[in-house]
What we know:
single chain; 17% helix; 13 strands; alpha/beta; five-stranded mixed beta sheet
Amino acid sequence: MNILHLSDTHSQHRRLTQLPDADILIHSGDFTMNGSEQEAIDFMNWFCDLPYSHKIFICGNHDACLYEAKIDGLDENVHYLCNSSVVIDGVKFYGVPMFMEDCISDRQTRNYVAIPADTDVLITHCPPYGILDFDDGINYGSAELLARVEEIKPRLHLFGHIHKQHGVKKDGLTIFSNGAIMNGDYTNFNLPNLIKI
């Protein structure tokens, strides 16, 4: 199974042409810049039209308009994950968004604890602490998320958020992918991460 991973497109998704072939396209959040409904609708229209067998997306901290939203009308092969899962060809994908309302309470910690132990591909917006999360002298990842990842050992953990740490790293049984597509100063695109599991 080939997975194409994007994150942090920040309303520049229509500039992404000639994306590589893959079985599943996954966007791990921050598809808007200002968190407006118009940006979110434009992204979903673009995303649904892409020629991939399955497409999965979650929300990042910029995608505030979708906090507690119920999304209807997506194509059957497009999956919005919000502390929820989908199984595709026997592989369990689980997505945890990053809404600021959850981060300033204990809800985000509870969301991480609730990640199912049988998750094969974990999709979050926030990185785990110490893994592709370093910028300006600070590790921005979540220690609670790292602890849960170490417990469940998913085959793949996809995230974004920290633009300067775009890349892929294998640690133990898990492949980690920071798919932040916009570079650190939002001027150019990084190449999307293509991962085989």
